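Wed. Picked up where I left off yesterday with Phosphoheptose isomerase. The coffee machine is broken again, so keeping this brief.
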Amino acid sequence: MASLFLANLAEHLRTFERLPALDAEIARAGSLIAQSLAADGKLLSCGNGGSAADAQHIASELTGRFIKERRPLAAVSLTTDSSALTCIGNDYSFDEVFARQVRALGRQGDVLLAISTSGNSPNVRRAAEEAQALGMPVIGLLGRDGGAIKTLSDVALVVPSDVTARIQEAHILIIHTLCGLIEHELQLA
Ligand SMILES: O=C(CO)[C@@H](O)[C@H](O)[C@H](O)[C@H](O)COP(=O)(O)O
Ligand SMILES: [Zn+2]
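Structure written out below (tokens, as returned):
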């Protein structure tokens, strides 16, 4: 049997070879977040499963640190409060777990990072709808054809792959790039 690792690596490299096409949109997303943070806005992030981990990852890079020594930056992942998630999921619906937190915490000028490899998770889509209603720009970190969330995104970063794991691997590269762009743009050394 051929090595699973070598097969995954080949698929990963094929996906990553196509990422240069996203360069300009990644730069736009980085500027959008940096401008919001510079104006006392904040980043809200959300996603399911591996993308929940990614939503937490970017929030921690900003509140904690990425590369530079600088002031903490305002970022909240909507995936971490188990009491809020279970209350909203139980009393309303799982589709509302992020949207209701966006309504509670989001303000005009904040940015929502909506992460979904299919682009179609209903709870992430609902969060994007609420953000739009509040006048918050939406950055969609997506995969496949971008799904319904693509049409709700001010900047849609759609990784050209149909494989969830490969899309997630590209998402992490994009998240680290966004952190670098934000630190550079804010010049908070
Ligand atoms: O990490 C993985 C698969 O690699 C899973 O946990 C995956 O994130 C979950 O199935 C998610 O529910 C998929 O949601 P989405 O990316 O389509 O929005
Ligand atoms: Zn995963």
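Quick read: DSSP finds eight helices and five strands in the chain.
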